[in-house]
């Protein structure tokens, strides 16, 4: 599973990264988690508001911090 957290390093972007890693540890699903901070790469996903969350190439969240429950549901849908 490939997960990308899109954002320029702001507080909300850091929070999404932390929540994703916590959820993965709780549900014991292996994944490669990458923080993407380059705006050109972020724009390639069509994301104009950060933070963004991309799971297996699909944009799942833009412009907000999802709850842990929402993140868990998104990850489980993609496994």
UniProtKB/TrEMBL annotation:
Where are the catalytic residues? 10 (nucleophile), 13 (nucleophile)
* Organism lineage string: Bacteria, Bacillati, Bacillota, Clostridia, Eubacteriales
Task: Write out the entry's keywords from A to Z.
Answer: Disulfide bond, Redox-active center
| Protein name according to UniProt | Redox-active disulfide protein 2
Q: Does the keyword Transport apply?
A: no
What are the annotated disulfide bridges?
A: 10-13
Keyword Heme attributed: no
Q: Which InterPro entries match?
A: Thioredoxin-like_fold, Thioredoxin-like_sf, THIRX-like_proc
Origin, by domain of life? Bacteria
Residue limits of the Thioredoxin-like fold domain?
A: 1-76
């Amino acid at each position: 599973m490939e997960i990308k957290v899109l954002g320029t390093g702001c507080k909300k972007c850091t929070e999404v990264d932390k929540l994703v890693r916590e959820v993965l540890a709780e549900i014991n699903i292996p994944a490669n988690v990458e923080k993407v901070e380059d705006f050109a790469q972020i724009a390639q996903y069509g994301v104009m508001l950060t933070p963004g969350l991309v799971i297996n190439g699909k944009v799942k969240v833009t412009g907000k911090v999802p709850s842990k429950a929402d993140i868990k549901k998104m990850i489980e849908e993609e496994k």
